What we know:
The protein has a 9-stranded mixed β-sheet, sandwiched between helices. Helix content is about 35%, strand content about 25%. The chain has 3 domains: about 1-40, no CATH class; about 75-265, Thiolase/Chalcone synthase (Peroxisomal Thiolase, Chain A, domain 1), CATH 3.40.47; about 270-419, Thiolase/Chalcone synthase (Peroxisomal Thiolase, Chain A, domain 1, 3-Layer(aba) Sandwich), CATH 3.40.47. Helix 7 (about 135-160) crosses helix 8 (about 185-190), helix 11 crosses helix 12 (about 345-355) and helix 13 (about 360-370) packs across helix 14. It is built from 14 helices and 16 strands. By secondary structure, the chain is an alpha/beta fold. Mean pLDDT is about 85; it is low at about 1-60.
Amino acid sequence: MAATLLEKGRYVRADGVSHKGDSPIQRQMAYGGRGPVFKGRLCPRPAFDLSAHHEQKGSNMKLSRDEERLQPAILSIGTALPSGRYSQEEIYQMICSCAEPYRNPRIEQLFMNSDIDFRHLYLSRESFTGQESSGELNARFRKGAVEIGKEAITACLTAGSLRATDIDFLVVATCTGYLCPGLCPILGKELGFRNDIQRADLVGMGCAGAMPALQRAYDFVKAHPGKKALVLTVEICSACYCFDDSLETMVGNAICADGAAAVVVGMSDASPIARIAGFQTLLEPSLLDSVGLEHAEGKLRIILSKDIRGLAGGLAAQVIRELLEAHGVAMEQISRWVIHSGGRRVIDAIQTDLGLSDAQILHSRTVLKNHGNMSSPTVLFVLQEVLNDSRAGAPRSGELGVMLALGPGLAAEAALISW
């Protein structure tokens, strides 16, 4: 398998020539940075062809419509943002005032060419010094996560005409701070959830966190069809800044933002409604150290390898191919795309390798432009854009969609949605 071959330091180029290399990323970047190693082959494009799905014009989902109605659905969605809204220019100047390495025209261009207009941050520009202690940062994380987390949950419950006491299972995904007790019991107290509510705090799953959280909710509802689960994703990325001179932290500080999103998952006879048909995960452990957060002098520091933009498209294409094959769905049957807004170049790579049109990727670019990369909530912000699509209209009965997010691991997480 790929991992075994990589450990032996050998790979096979697309022309069949065997070589040795220093590391998985170096070996891939030597060939244009495109396409991870699968089955021992390294190709500048993915080592598989999604066009095969386009030939399956008679392909249908394996689930009948009656069976689909037994699938958990996303009953409602709500989002929230901190009140502090800043332009990229404002954020850049804020950082320059306390971090000398950023006072460089090349770094300024990194901020200005990000395709991001605004980001919401849970901080005050007037009082920001860039000198917060680890304790102060975690306190700001707690205060901000609880505040906007409550707002997102309230918006979600209101949209579904639900009360907090209607929820049987609460899942919270976050990676930008650590609390014990976690956010589940804190929010349970704040919002009046029942004392017997089941809960799960998922910590450390990064930008992909919404997908495994959604799967935990799906599993719960499948096991208990009469019950409802609520998923909250909330991040205060502004509470884990680090102002060193490394490019990866500069990129993180140029695109990451704060936000929260919540969904309720349950059974419903309504139509059309976003039903979850299934999930697919792809882990590439050879890239374990390429994305995430690490502790540096007691603070969280972003790890965001520049090479990810060259790997994202191939990983996305592989996990989506496996997802569609598992459900007997052709690529051309997917009309709605919910792609995590990981950054301009990541979106570009995924669009290219999946062969998506500008219209199909528009909602991901819209979220990036207006909010930046909020880590785990971001893909749910994109889902909200898709559900409220004023251009193409809301999804109609019979349509299919794919949700996709990439995160630490390196993990590609996908879900098939049917309306």
